[in-house]
Amino acid sequence: MDLHEETADVLSRLIRFDTVNPPGNERAALEWLAGYLEDAGLECELAGPEPERQNLVAVLRGREPGPVLGYLGHVDTVLADRDDWSRDPWGGERHDGWLWGRGALDMKNQVAAEAVAAARLARSGWRPARGELRVFAVCDEETGGVLGAQWLCEQRPDLARCDFLLNEGGGPVVPYEDRRLYGVCCAEKGTFRFRVTARGRAGHASVPIPDGNALVKLAGAIERLARPLDTYDVTEDTRALLCGLGEDPGDPAGAVARVAEREPRLAPLVRAALQVTMAPTRAFASEKINVIPARAELHVDCRAPAGMEPDAVMARVREALGDDGDLEVAFLETVVGNRSPLDTPLMDAIGEWIGQADPGAIAAPYVLPAFTDSRHWRVAFPDCVAYGFFPTRHMAIWDWWPLLHAADERIDLRDLGFAAEFFAWLPPRLLG
Predict the structure, then answer these.
(1) Mean per-residue pLDDT for 33-55?
(2) Which among 362, 354, 419 has a CA at the least distance from the CA of 107?
């Protein structure tokens, strides 16, 4: 069985395990994967806080001490409604050049490609000249990673520690004019969810009180927060992204305008990387339809470029809200964005492989609007270089996003093999 076929087979098997989180129940899938990797010659250990919520660490040890390269992936998924799908979301079916199922992109695909690459290397007799290759397959990412990556890094640092880590978050090709970029996720935006509160006077809904309805006072705030800011916060990572696109990082507004004109599908992702974004998502007011609310709340999902602290983010929130002093604003959550350095042996190796696999294409730093389990490694092991990278040549970045957490999730089989080739190439390149 060649590398491409074996990766597709492993992915199909993983998809057939229903690991929707909650409840997760990832143990059966991880036990199967551990057996697969042990048969190839890796040492495996399951560890976790609950019997059915385990994490797998598989190790291929080197001849001498040295750096540890980690391959990370989570096996839990979001839910799927069979009625919304064209094919069985837990069937792992191959059809018309695609492999279908929940987790085909997020992210049993990467778990499969990383595991197969490690197994192939082990079966071939390869061992690192120095250091180790570790394959991490964890639970619970979709609900925050408390039982998975966070637990592993905090409670079993002996198993989790690594110098280089590859995870989800980047890799799909970005065609832009005459350029082909493969995004390497080197930073993740911070999460600064906040609450906006308006106050008024309660009363009977049959006789509306002028300026008394707290919910109405939120209407203008919702409209203002839904509009993108005119302000951009360019960081080292987004500066490198704009340079990769051939745009001027000194003129971010102009760069976004040019991207929108030349490739509209890319513009929302570039804008999101460069700005504090605010998305009103929930509103709460009167509990009864015939009572004018004296208090109304709006909850907003806010993301900020890596490194921005709460005070700087709040300044952007106030900028968006304007001069409405009647509104109270308070953070519900403050998680500063995280990042890894750009000038590293891992980035050099990724760029080298891209140049060989897709001549003329380049690696470009990318900022993920959301967050992944990489943040737990960056916190626990400050010297660990963690990137998101699963290269796909046929599925562009705008082909990925509409399928994530959506019905009919699927991956181009050619890209599954393409990524597996990278994961098999990298360990000898980094570890000798």
Answers:
(1) 98
(2) 419
